[in-house]
Amino acid sequence: MAEEFFGPEVAETYRTSGGTGPPAGRLWQNFTVRPGDLLVEKSAASAFFPRCCPLPELLKDRRIDTVLITGTVTNVCCESSARDASTLGFRVIMVADANAARRDQDHNATLYTVYRSFGDVRPTSEVLDLINAG
């Protein structure tokens, strides 16, 4: 679909914008991957869309019921993932200051939509407090 929408050159640019090769080799150099960490690649806007990413099944196999949504672009991939995760029965927390959009109004509109319909919205400091509290 991306190729039909963007054309072959732009679609390929998007597809390879994070690099090529195994996912672990494309992460930020100071990001530590620990044994047991899941690294998955998605092929749609949502990391939870059926048949486009194995993430939902991998999380359910591990009895994980809550997901933290972070990344770019807030109002595209992040919102798509939050909506689909909620629909699949996951508890969703959109980490407000760990997402970004091109415009503040787009970012804030998505945070409002998620909060009103699909999950919770919290800043990183509150999420870390929740994690540390167990």
Describe the structure.
The protein has 134 residues and is of the alpha/beta class. The protein has helices at 2-6, 8-15, 55-61, 74-87, 104-117, 124-133; strands at 66-72, 91-100, 120-122. It has a 3-stranded parallel β-sheet with strand order 1-2-3. Helix 4 links the parallel strand 1 (66-72) and strand 2 (91-100). Helix 4 (74-87) packs parallel to helix 5 (104-117). It is globular. The model has no long low-confidence stretch (mean pLDDT 91).
Break the fold down into its secondary structure elements and pairings.
Blueprint: H1 2-6, H2 8-15, H3 55-61, E1 66-72, H4 74-87, E2 91-100, H5 104-117, E3 120-122, H6 124-133
Parallel strand pairs: 1-2, 2-3
Sum up the structure in keywords:
134 residues, 3-stranded parallel β-sheet, 6 helices, 15% strand
Distance between the termini: 42 Å
Widest beta sheet: strand line-up: 1-2-3
Q: Outline the biggest β-sheet.
A: 3 strands, parallel
How much of the sequence lies in strands comes to: 5-15%
Gyration radius, to the nearest Å?
A: 15 Å
Which shape, going by the Cα principal axes?
Answer: globular
Which class best fits the helix and strand makeup? alpha/beta
**In terms of per-residue confidence, which ranges show pLDDT below 50 for 5 or more consecutive residues?**
none
